[in-house]
Amino acid sequence: MTTTEVPTAAPPKRVAVPGRPARRRREGAAWVFLSPWVLGACVLTLLPMAVSLYLSFTDYDLFNPPSWVGLRNYTQMFTEDPRYWRSVVATLTYVVIAVPLQLALALAVALALKSMRRGRAFYRSAFYAPSLLGASMSIALVWRAIFNDGGTVDNLFGTGGWVNKPGWALFAVALLTVWQFGAPMVIFLAGLLQIPGELYEAAAVDGASRWRQFAHITIPMLSPVLFFNLVLQTIQAFQVFTPAFAVSAGKGGPADSTLFYTLYLYDRGFVASHMGYASAMAWVLLIVIGAVTAVLFRTSRSWVFYASEGDR
């Protein structure tokens, strides 16, 4: 009796995916070119952030090894430090004053430049120049001289130096920020030039006034750009340092009226050598900026219009 051998199925052949080696080579080349950025992000950003987070739970004076204190820096900040809360109030007041005024001036100048037929490039560059110069210490010192006793403002109006009056010093610093409206102005101008002219022509045919065209066409069509500038300038305003340092000579005066958050953080960390406390302040600032940005993004759903989404 013979046995019949049942033939076994041959193992499936591996099908080569065309282009896979080439794709892997491209991915490898991409990581090679990205490696400087990845290395810089890890060494210059992520690692310092991790160290700062650790120091926020320690008592560290830059000269002795840090000692673990847990949440003491945070509890002291919120319950035992009145200057901390004065810095919070000064910063919030500055943000509320400077950001809306800067954006309003930037939009007004952008609207004026849009209607210009000749010389637009020259005036756009001229108005943008303060954004390049205003963040420098030299301009801040000149600003202090203008608003100091015997300065230009005092000679013109006879009101005395603003930087020496608690009620006016913060407003002088805010004006320096408003003067640096060039960057948002350029962004506004680019957005205005993208609005179709047919919309204004149709509104004019229907009898809409200039104000109605601005309210019902310009603002809705420009809302994504307005939202971008609002987020960007708000984040920058929370971190303002150089103008307050120069105008108040690093003291935040008079009467702590220009004691901005970052200036007080600098004072605690590098003047008083309480680096652990300063690190805790920095992390609170990061959380607050993140929360404010999240709120702006959340509220943008009700007023930001995107042309590709008709229901927004």
Automatic annotation (TrEMBL):
GO BP annotations listed: transmembrane transport
Protein name per Swiss-Prot or TrEMBL: Sugar ABC transporter permease
Residue span(s) of domain ABC transmembrane type-1: 88-296
Membrane topology: Multi-pass membrane protein
GO cellular component: plasma membrane
Location of region: Disordered: 1-21
Ranges annotated as biased composition (Low complexity): 11-20
Annotated localization: Cell membrane
Membrane-spanning ranges: 30-57, 92-113, 125-147, 167-193, 214-235, 275-297
Organism: Streptomyces spinoverrucosus
UniProt cross-references to CDD domains, sorted A to Z: TM_PBP2
Family per similarity comment: Belongs to the binding-protein-dependent transport system permease family.
Pfam family, one: BPD_transp_1
Key words, A-Z: Cell membrane, Membrane, Transmembrane, Transmembrane helix, Transport
